[in-house]
Amino acid sequence: MNWHEYVNATGKVPAWPYEINYGREHVIKTDVLIIGGGVAGIRAAISAKQHGATVAVADRGAAKYSGAGGAGVDHWHGAVLNPCSKITPRQYSDVAMYCDDGYCNGSMRYIVGKEGWDTLLELEKWGMQIRDVKDEFVGSIFRDDETKLMFAYDVDNKHCLRVWGNNIKRVAFAEAKRLGVDIYDRICIFSLLTEGGVQGARVCGALGVHDRTGEFYIFRCKAAVVATGGGSRIGGLAPELNAASAMGDLNLTGIGHTIGWKAGAQLVMMEQAGTYGGGFGYTPYSMGNSDNTYQGAPTVDYNGKPIAFATRYGKLLDDYRDVFRTSNPDTFVLGHGIGVSFLKPGSANDYEATHLDPKIGEKVRSGEFKMPLYNDFTDLSDLDRRAIYNLMLAHEGKCRVPIFETWNEAGFDPARDLLQCVITTPDTLYARPGWVGINAGPNNWFSPGSGGYLTDWRLQSTIPGLFVAGGRPIFGGGCHGESHTTGRYSGRQAAAFARANDFAEANPEQIKKEKDAAYTPVNNKGDIGWKELNYAIARVMADYCGHVKTEEVLNLGLKRLADMRESEGERTFVNNPHELARMVEDYSFFDLGQCYIEAAKARKASSNILRFTRIDYPEVDPEEWHKLIPLSLKDGEVVAGSLDCWFYKKGPYSEDLESNYVKYAELD
Ligand SMILES: Cc1cc2nc3c(=O)[nH]c(=O)nc-3n(C[C@H](O)[C@H](O)[C@H](O)COP(=O)(O)OP(=O)(O)OC[C@H]3O[C@@H](n4cnc5c(N)ncnc54)[C@H](O)[C@@H]3O)c2cc1C
């Protein structure tokens, strides 16, 4: 019986099905606490456990499936040490840094290059398919016959793999359980504990609320890993449509950044703007597309006229194999959707995947081609069609059930049917017309970019004992495979830290203060619900930290957030523990919003690479502002620093990335 049937049959909404005990305390002591049980967090937990620590994971959802990567993956990036690869870890790191002109994480990319393949081999051991073991793709241009590995994007350089990853999270979760990791599902962590409650001091725990019982969790630890993924809800909310445009999900709120910000960690690149508007797109991959999972899908216009693929330099391609090669024979395809913006002029042409004819926009405007466009899989050989539809789409995140199985049940047959692409501005048709259906969003839109914790060669934040892993909390963070890999690395580091350090003392006053604040809406009986508050904060962020940034506008934004926290923030109500956890997330947006706006204030120049425009500082990427700006709170005051983008290979580190890795990687 679904919700509507129940309400129709009984005339009432169902009662809350769990026992509620608002504020009842649980204290959990563990060597290593993992905050966020997504792919990075679960992998960090496995790794910390393998290295001798006791480990607890606190996850906002159900860790078996939760997170952006919980429902599968089709591309595994960064496996640069696989036996077929022609790329080295050094190239992988250097090229990522080059393509973002330094606004990327060079040490993290090197670590991924070193360990990405080993991380995947472990998954294979636990039960995920990474090779064409059933010989379904013999003869495919993507296949290496000796290893049976299948490659994506770049069939010459072979470091990004096609994988059968729909069960990836389940196999990692099973391994964590087998090793005896303690997993606490449905906990919304909203605060870090530092030694003595001092900002910037050693981490010693975290606080959370349970979203079914309303109970209060105090985690005490020797070391912690933040692995809470990304989050777009601060920029937009549309849960009635399709859950925050489904590239994220409603549980991904950027709270991992917020807890670090409040605890005094240094964050960088928080001023960078992102490209996805939360909430208003199509479900990713539910529309035709020639990019990413659908890379190589032939596209035709309304009249069935084929649109050619082209190199990044605009040369139209007639050999299908060339679609999966670089546009410049001296380079390699770095990857796609890996958190690299490719905004340094020329870098996208040299290191990004091919796309459709770049003139398609013009040709649509002139009437030569007509919208809508369609993917025409019938034009492919059976082998190539299966590589896209039955391998990539069927295993891609969030696609297997809602898209692949639903379409199949509805009778969609790629050997016969066309798949319509998004109807959108012609100028974007050539590249990504349909991951989520929209990219930049309305003119005045706030969308977080790749900002996150400043990390060192241990992937440790500036808070001792606090390590970082995964797609977003690490600044310049990447994709699925990279998240597993950084999780594996950070978990190992956290275990080493816990071996060398005992528990530090938390501050009971901090715990009481944070607890009282979190339970405000339970006692308030106010008139503002969590959705209303979320919409209002997103509106403030769009207005005051959107595309129109000036010192005055940004200052007003800070004031609006502070005022709203003191007025509407005190008038909140919740009906159950689920709404309490959502409201706690909303409260975190006041702090996160402050961090984003302070970061925008700190950069007094515009930047193409960071997609950052200051109307009052129009000069674009001037040399003196070509740097990272570490931002933190110290005794409640904002402190802005200055850091060379290439700090990870300058003193005290070595220019030789391998020697840094060997020195800090905690290799057994
Ligand atoms: C549809 C889709 C397809 C994708 N396809 C690919 C692909 O093919 N290849 C690729 O490389 N990448 C892909 N990605 C990106 C990839 O999934 C992410 O980069 C990856 O999942 C990031 O891992 P993570 O562990 O950092 O974050 P997530 O997997 O998002 O996990 C974050 C975890 O943190 C938890 N959490 C959040 N807040 C709290 C809190 N307050 N308290 C406790 N826990 C919290 C969440 O419940 C979640 O479990 C795709 C993403 C999507 C959405």
What key phrases describe this protein's structure?
single chain; 668 residues; alpha+beta; FAD/NAD(P)-binding domain; seven-stranded mixed beta sheet; four-stranded antiparallel beta sheet; 20 strands; binds flavin-adenine dinucleotide
What would your notes on this structure say?
The model has no long low-confidence stretch (mean pLDDT 93). The chain has helices at 3-10, 39-50, 89-99, 106-126, 168-179, 239-242, 255-263, 347-351, 360-365, 382-395, 400-410, 480-500, 508-518, 520-524, 530-545, 551-566, 577-602, 657-664; strands at 25-35, 55-58, 75-76, 150-151, 161-162, 182-184, 187-194, 203-210, 216-226, 267-268, 299-300, 306-307, 309-310, 355-356, 374-376, 418-420, 452-453, 466-468, 631-634, 637-640. A hairpin with a 5-residue loop joins strand 8 and strand 9. The protein has a domain at 19-74 and 164-275 and 446-668: FAD/NAD(P)-binding domain (3-Layer(bba) Sandwich). Helices cover 32% and strands 12% of the residues. It contains 18 helices and 20 strands. Helix 2 (39-50) packs parallel to helix 5 (168-179), helix 2 packs parallel to helix 12 (480-500) and helix 7 crosses helix 17 (577-602). It has 668 residues and is α+β, with helices and mostly antiparallel strands. The strands form six sheets. Strands 1, 2, 6, 7, 8, 9 and 18 form a seven-stranded mixed sheet that branches. The chain has a four-stranded antiparallel sheet with strand order 12-11-15-16, with no helix packed on it.
